[in-house]
Amino acid sequence: MEAIQNLIQGFSVAASPLNIIWMISGAFLGTVLGMLPGIGPSTGVALLLPLTFAMKPETALITMCAIYYGAMFGGSRSSILLNVPGDGAAVASCFDGYPMARNGQAETALAISAIASFIGGLISTIIFVFLALPVARFALKFGPPEYFALMVFALAATASISKEALLKGLLSLLLGLMITTVGIDLQSGVHRFTFGVMELQTGIDFVVVIIGIYGIGEVFKNFETIGSAGARAIQSKFKRIWITMEQWKRSIVPILRQTPVGFLIGVLPGAGGTIAAMMAYNNEKQLSKEPERFGKGAIEGLAAPEAANNAASVGALIPMMTLGVPGSGTTAIMLGALMILGLQPGPLLFQQHPEVAWGVIASMFLGNIVCAIINLPLAGLLVRVLSVPPRILYPLIVALAFMGVYTINFSVVDFYLLVIFGIIGYFMKKYKVPTAPLILAVVVGSSMEQSFRQSLMLSDGSLKIFFRSGISVVLLILAAVSIIYPFLSDWIKKKRQRISSGI
C-alpha cells in the first residue's frame, strides 16, 4: 500500500504541465535520435544533456528518461525499414523485422514494434514499483565469475539459433571475439593487433561493426540485383499501421514471456539491451513450434526482442536509482547529470527526495504512453521510405552510415573499418553465415574477457571459481543445454516419428 501511495504522489509530480511538456519533447527527440544509425540512447542522452542543466532535478531526470525510452522505441525503425540498426539493442529487430518489410508487411512490423515496446515498458515499470530493491540486491550478487557465466550463456544461446549451421555460427562467434581483442589490453597495457595505428589503441567500436555488417553489407548485397528482376520492389501502396487479431495472438505470449527476461538482464550492470534482445529472440525460436519461420518474417521474432529491450531499459534504471550503480552506459550519463544537479542516487534518494524518485517512476508509465502515441503516427510517415527507388535509397543509407560512425570517434579510420565490415557482412550474407553470434560477441567480448581474467586473479588461476557459486553453475548448465537442446529435441522428434510409423 505504501508503494501505491508513493506512486500517486509521484503522478502528481510527473503530471505537472512543465514535466509533461519536457516528457513529450524528450520522447520525440529520443525517437528521432534513436532512428539515426550510430547515435543510440547513450549518445542521444549525452547530446541533449545540456538541455537539463537549468531544470529542477525531477524535471531533468524525467526528460532524460523520456529521451532514453524514445531512443529505444526509435532504434528499431531503421532496423525494420533499412536493415540498419540504430544501436546494438535494435540488432535483433533486423532478423525478422526487415524480412517482414521486404514481404510487404512493413506497416505490421512497425505497429507490433511500437506495441511490444509499449507493453514491455509498462509491465517492467509495474515490476519496478514493487520489486526494485529485492531485484537490485540480487543483482549485487553478480561478481566476475557470474558475469562470465552469464555472457557464456548469452553467446551459447545465440550461436545455437543457427542449429542448421552450428559450425558457421561458432565461426561467426569466434570472429566477433577476435575483433574485441583489438586495442590496448586493459590489464597489462600491451598493444594487441593495432598494427601501429593509433586510432585502434582504444579498440573497434561495436557500432561500427553493426552498421558495417548490416547497413553497408546489405547495400553491397543489393548492388547485385539492382535494376534486375530480383531487385527490391518499390512499395507504392501503404496499409494502415496496425495488426490483425491473428498477429496479436501470435505476439502477445512472446511479449509477456520475454519482458521479465529483458527486465532482469537490464538490472545487471553492464549487461544491457543487446543481450536482452538476443536472448529473447533465441528463447522464442527455441520455444516455437515452427522455428523455421524465424528469420523469414515471423512476427513473434520481432515482438519478443522489442519487448525485452524496452524492459531492459527500465531495469537498467533500478541499480542507478536504488543503489547509485549505473546499469548501462545511458544510466551512467544520467547518474553523472544527477550528481551535477546536487543529488546522490541510492537508497537515501527515496527518503530524502521522494518527489524525484517517485516522480520519475510515475513518469515511466506516462512516458511509455507518450512514446506509443508519438511512434504509431510517425510510423505512417516513416514507412514511405519504402517508396524511394533503390538508386536513391542505397546512397542515402551509405551516407547515413558514414555520418553515424563519424559521430562516434570523429575518426577517418572508422570509415575504412566500416567498408571492411561491410565486405565481411556481404560475404556472410552471401554464404549464409549467421551474423547474430558475431554481433553479440563484439558487444560482450571485452567484458567477458575482463570478467574471466578477474575471476582467475581472485582464485589464483583456479577454474573452480566458476563452480563455487550457484548462479554461475546454473548459467553454465543453461549454456550447455542451449547448445544441446535443439539436437536433443530433433532426435526425440525423429524417434517418435519412427515409433509412430512402426520402423
UniProtKB/TrEMBL annotation:
Residue intervals of the DUF112 domain:
20-440
> Which N-terminal residues, if any, form the signal peptide?
none
- Pfam families, per the entry: TctA
Q: Where are the transmembrane segments?
A: 20-49, 109-135, 147-163, 169-186, 193-216, 261-281, 323-344, 356-383, 395-428, 465-488
InterPro entries for this protein: DUF112_TM
Does Zinc-finger show up as a keyword for this record? Answer: no
Q: Would I find Transmembrane among this entry's keywords?
A: yes
Keywords (alphabetical) are: Membrane, Transmembrane, Transmembrane helix
Query: Under which name does UniProt file this protein?
Result: DUF112 domain-containing protein
Q: Which organism is it from?
A: Koleobacter methoxysyntrophicus
